[in-house]
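Sorry, any thoughts here?
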Amino acid sequence: TLSSGTLNDGGNTISLDNSNGWNRTGGTFTTTGTVAFTGSTPSFISGTLPTTFNNLTMNNSGGVTLNLSPAASTVVAGVLTLTNGIITTSSSNLLKLAAGSSSSSGSDLSYVSGPMVKVGNTDFTFPVGKSGKWMRVGISDLSTITTEVFAEYFDNGNANLTSLSGSLTQVSPDEYWMVDRTVTSDPVKLKFYWENATSSSIIDCSYLTIAHYTGGVWK
């Protein structure tokens, strides 16, 4: 718990091993190092003030939940490393990666469950997933450094599966991604990943295309 004064990691790693987590209610955090969640005890990033981490490492099989009150984004300015455990976010407690930051690819063992945001104009792959499914989505060819792209994976069908246009005959009843941008209207190229055939109902890839839900219709 950081409640007053200044905590400076001196470029070193602060390891929160089997702890209740990171709780900031005051003070200043100065960082050029890493905060690492380790162990197997479910943990939290909580408190009344948000924190900007330099590097954030997730290696806690019990998972970490973002739970600030009042709700605010938790920011990573350097590198997000996903080794083991799930980071759980919400629309009011986002994980935000600042411009110039990066992330490891994640895995079935470690990903972000819930929405996350990437700021900037560099190519990026969101290490998102849900309910045991790791299902990345990538963005590229952005032009504005202030662009913010939001991404979340859902392991269920969209609420509207029947409003189709063009040559579409069906949209997946199993899953979809929500990807959107804010701050600017940059065009964004998307790349979707098919990580694990055993968790998918895809039978013939030759019939696949990407559909965009807009104006109440899949296009």
In short: The longest strand covers residues 148-154. The CA atoms of residues 103 and 144 lie 20 Å apart. The mean pLDDT is 95. The chain has no helices and 25 strands.
